[in-house]
Amino acid sequence: MGTEPEYEPTAHLETGYVPESEAPVANFFEEESDTRRSRRPSREKQRRRRRRTIVMLVVLVFFAGVVFGLTIFLRDLLGMNEIKDYEGSGTGSVSFTVAEGDGPMVIGGKLEAADIVATSKEFLNAFQTESEGREIQPGSYEMKQQMSSSAALDALLGDQGGAVHYAAVARDLRQSEVFEILSTSTGIPLAEFEALAKNPQAFGLPAQAVSLEGYLHPGEYRFPLDQDATSIVTEMVDGTFAVLEDAGITDPAEQYRILTKASIIQAEAGEADYATVAGAIQNRLREDNVETSGLIQSDATVTYGLNRKSYDLTPEEKADKSNPYNTYANPGLPVGPIGSPSTEAVEAAAKPADVPYYYWVTVNLDTGQTEFSSTLAEHSKFVAQYQEWCATQEPGRCA
């Protein structure tokens, strides 16, 4: 007996022929198949649409990020994101220093680095178009953050209040030299300044002060055209009092003593050695000092008392006790300051370094190399080294 082949509805459906006896069954399967077929493509299409939508969104976000990043990069590359110049007169306060020899390009770079101006290029443009041949003088200036280039230039040229009298007072100048500078700058007769110096107590100096020596603070000054001699001197003396107070020195007698010491430090040492020289002087002033017996032995003080600048002193001049500034013959500090000390020298005098030295000598005036010693024997070797250096110099170089 043969085996009947199994029923295969799909075979019938594929040919399109369905026997009547099998129609209900075929119709049943056909309806079920159509329903499944109609549902399955709908779900797949939805899933495909969702996938396409997600992919498109990811691609769009990616390309948007690329375009944004590329735009920023190109703007940076082309300088389109840079602030070309700040606006206005700026905010806050910052001290800015123009060194000797600094030109407009260097000054512009320093201003940009300190965020005083936006770019050195714009500052240079302002200088070239607005300076009218004037030069920026070396010195310290009170500036502001984020100034326009024109405002910064005005501050450096002294144009904030119109025309001014400019005076550059260097450190270590004597009172007479300062007055000459002030008179030349302002046109005020020299005699007016000299007359003011005869009454130093009128400017707040202690009773022992016999002049304004030491109290005329060095620096860059821009005096209004109508400023008189009294207010000019007051401004400079007040500057010295401010430096002393900042150093913690408020007693008038101690201020006078510190200024006297600072003026010696200023004359005897380079800035790098201020604190060390201050320490050596402090050691010499100690009561238990047996090395120099309280003598400071400064050439600068002796020459001041002689009203000279040369340090070429004779044995007789060093031994002359009648010179009240002679620290070879008279122990302790001289009777007063010998010049205008800088802020740094005042700070060193107020806080001298703790060192074992009593002696110092600059062995090379070109480099400022200074050697320190604790004994006279060691010091003598360095003095010989200095003399050897002087022997190689032009006549008068070491005078």
From TrEMBL:
<feature type="transmembrane region" description="Helical">
    <location>
        <begin position="53"/>
        <end position="74"/>
    </location>
</feature>
<dbReference type="Pfam" id="PF02618">
    <property type="entry name" value="YceG"/>
</dbReference>
<keyword id="KW-1133">Transmembrane helix</keyword>
<keyword id="KW-0812">Transmembrane</keyword>
<keyword id="KW-0472">Membrane</keyword>
<dbReference type="GO" id="GO:0005886">
    <property type="term" value="C:plasma membrane"/>
</dbReference>
<comment type="similarity">
    <text>Belongs to the transglycosylase MltG family.</text>
</comment>
<comment type="function">
    <text>Functions as a peptidoglycan terminase that cleaves nascent peptidoglycan strands endolytically to terminate their elongation.</text>
</comment>
<dbReference type="GO" id="GO:0008932">
    <property type="term" value="F:lytic endotransglycosylase activity"/>
</dbReference>
<feature type="site" description="Important for catalytic activity">
    <location>
        <position position="268"/>
    </location>
</feature>
<keyword id="KW-0456">Lyase</keyword>
<dbReference type="GO" id="GO:0071555">
    <property type="term" value="P:cell wall organization"/>
</dbReference>
<keyword id="KW-0961">Cell wall biogenesis/degradation</keyword>
<protein>
    <recommendedName>
        <fullName>Endolytic murein transglycosylase</fullName>
        <ecNumber>4.2.2.29</ecNumber>
    </recommendedName>
</protein>
<dbReference type="GO" id="GO:0009252">
    <property type="term" value="P:peptidoglycan biosynthetic process"/>
</dbReference>
<keyword id="KW-1003">Cell membrane</keyword>
<dbReference type="InterPro" id="IPR003770">
    <property type="entry name" value="MLTG-like"/>
</dbReference>
